[in-house]
Design goal:
The structure holds 2 protein chains of 2 kinds.
Chain A lengths: L7 H15 L3 E6 L6 H12 L3 H14 L1 E7 L1 H13 L4 E5 L2
Antiparallel strand pairs in A: 1-2, 1-3
Helix pairs in contact in A: 2-3
Chain B lengths: L1 E6 L2 E6 L1 H11 L19 H27 L4 E4 L2 E6 L1 H21 L6 H6 L6 H22 L15
Antiparallel strand pairs in B: 1-2, 2-4, 3-4
Helix pairs in contact in B: 3-5
Classes of the chains: A alpha+beta, B alpha+beta.
Chain lengths: 99, 166
């Protein structure tokens, strides 16, 4: 009877991938654009992240003055979720690896 | 469009006939932002992740489109009153309408060539682009009225005050 060994290499690879995806190594970034109103951007940040007005305005002003704001650092899955939510409001948001 | 009442149950606006026609004209444009416009990452993402984003946005777009069509058809949504109509919205409805209006605003801006600043917008204006400029500005105007009603940033006379018949 042939000996059946577990496929350790594949298991390791899959585990390390999911571990990397679970690590908070992704930045959710909102980029400036000349079309979205400042009040609207503040409102969206409050709705999506549940932030208070002060924190939402801080990030909105960072977007406006510096061209972008890092909104949060999350796992791949959560970062994707937030980008989806922000894009639903037509904000210019992306997720980038935190190198 | 003027806010008459705002509370947890909903928002109530007075909207003139002309404003209502403008709102309907705008909503008929939805959706305007191309499905390929939103990008998950600037550095590049896995095609399947980008596809997932586009599918999620398309699903939401179809849902909003159905809501918009229902709003345009439902006569009860706009109750006739002197000099216009009473326009009632629940907070959740105002929230999706805000997303719809911003899609129209951003989509119109893209159709204008994504100009940066009013001078560039005016330089881009001609007979073909003028409707896009109108849509961008008009949707922005409705958007701000809704936004201020939702966030409670209205004048004391408008917010949570007894309804006034004008």
């Amino acid at each position: 009877m042939p000996e059946i060994l577990p496929d350790l290499e594949e298991k390791e690879s899959s585990e390390s991938k999911s571990k990397s995806e679970l690590e908070p190594g992704y930045l959710v970034i909102c980029w400036n654009d000349p079309v979205n109103y400042m009040d609207y951007v503040t409102h969206v940040f409050r709705k999506v992240f549940g932030w208070n007005k002060t924190k939402a305005e801080f990030h909105m002003l960072q977007v406006h003055n510096q061209g972008k704001s890092v909104l949060t650092r999350e796992s791949m899955e959560k970062a994707e979720h937030y980008v989806h939510q922000l894009q639903k409001y037509t904000l210019h948001a992306t997720m980038e690896r935190d190198e | 469009m003027k806010l008459l009442r705002a509370n947890k149950a909903g928002l109530s606006f007075h909207i003139s006939d002309r404003e209502k026609r403008a709102l309907f004209k705008l909503l008929e444009l939805y959706p305007l932002v191309p499905a390929s416009y939103p990008k998950l990452s600037r550095a590049g993402s896995r095609p399947e992740d980008q596809q997932l984003l586009e599918e999620a946005l398309n699903a939401q777009r179809n849902e909003h489109k159905a809501r918009v069509l229902a709003m345009l058809k439902a006569k009860s949504r706009f109750q006739a009153e002197p000099h216009g109509h009473r326009f009632n919205l629940k907070p959740a409805e105002a929230e999706w309408l805000l997303q719809v209006l911003n899609d129209i605003r951003v989509g119109s801006w893209l159709l204008l060539g994504s100009p940066d600043g009013m001078v560039k917008i005016f330089n881009a204006l001609n007979e073909q682009t003028l409707p896009h400029f109108w849509a961008m500005e008009a949707s922005g105007d409705f958007q701000m009225t809704l936004l201020h009603a939702l966030t409670g940033e209205t004048t004391a006379a408008e917010s949570d005050s007894p309804e006034s018949e004008e």
